[in-house]
Amino acid sequence: MNHPLIDRLAADDRVRLFSSLQDAGQSPYYRTMHSSSGATSNVQGVDRIMLGSNNYLGLANHPQVIEATTEAVRRFGSASTGSRLLNGTMSLHEELEAEIADWFGTEDALCFSTGYQTNLGTLAALVGGRDAVVIDEFAHASLRDGLRMARTSVHPFRHNDLSALEEALVAARGESPDQILVVVDSLYSMEGSLAPLTGVADLAREFGAALMVDEAHAMGLYGPTRRGRVDETGTVDAVDVTMASFSKSSASCGGFITGSAELVTGLRVTARPMIFSTSSVPAATASSLASIRLMRTDEGARRTDAVRRNSILLRTELRGKGIECDSGLPDDSWSPIVPVPVGDDLRAAHTWNLLLEAGVYTGVAVHPAVPAAGAILRLCVTADHTEEQLVGAAVSIAHALAATRLDAAS
Ligand code: PMP
Questions:
Q1: Pair 366, 271 in one domain
Q2: Closest atom of ligand 1 to CA, residue 188
Q3: Which H, E and C letters describe 265-334, residue by residue?
Q4: For 286-340, what is each residue's pLDDT tens digit?
């Protein structure tokens, strides 16, 4: 017999949907991987084309990253055994922070154990009850959760809509807050859409607001030095707080904030996940460092070009089959995340299963990760995918969508 609290949890709509799909062997979630995440991965015992990982640059299997990680474990062991504040600061953490500050041209950087904790801890430390925060409605959950922890006044605005941002800023200013902070992702993780950063930066400046940009998915892929979309759009001077995660292109686990010395020192002693959680383990810290170093080399540039080419190829193949997947991207831009709209949650699960059988693993996002009836297959390309794999995957996707469309009509 469960306590009623647990029964209530089990009755949650999301739990019921998950359980019914799981019972029917159709759930796309919690599938078991038996290999590293490359252009193909072994999913439940079978090698399949992997279009569902954030390993954009393909560094998760890179010999240099693996070597640096192994060496760090030999030297520092498996654990860090404490929070950064106490015994959990290793020379590896400091090397990683120095590398990031050097790359971003900032005064300092601070690394957290996950990207989620980075956003949570930073926002809760930075803003409070007398401030107002203006945030894109599709901003990552970690940012929105950080604002809950901060107990601040929140003004969400329509996704990527600059006039909606302006209206939200006017409303925020109307509250006479102590300070206003604008928060956006630079590349949205589900939709693959790109924030209009120049317009966002102009409005933030006009209203005297601070600006925080989450570059989790963009770091390593955009801009002359490949730091991300702030670099690409030349908005560096307008951004007060830059965040990114090590779990995407840098093929590890963790996150960081970079900016002024005062920002970083402030967070070092006030961000709760920094103080009350164990620091990232040597393996993760070393793989982040090795990945970042690689990203800065000519090989990093070649890998970025390959991701761009592959993303354009996959989109072109899908569009050629009448599948719309544009995320509202400007013609001269691109995104490693290719969303395929499916609509209904159950249709998304069915399509996903057909694709798995056809040897293609994709991500899938259903409500509440995306708006209701806005389920998508989330496809991510990497530098290591071959043309043959992507062309073949597009054919399988078109077949699976056609099959589930017929089902829906019958
Ligand atoms: N920001 C964005 C935009 C993300 O997509 C994610 C996770 N996917 C995070 C932050 C959290 O990063 P992590 O997975 O490293 O905790």
A1: no
A2: 3
A3: HHHHHHCHHHHHCECCCHHHHHHHHHHHHHHCCHHHHHHHHHHHHHHHHHHHHHHHCCCCCCCCCCCCCC
A4: 999 999 999 999 999 999 999 999 999 999 999 999 998 877 888 789 999 999 9
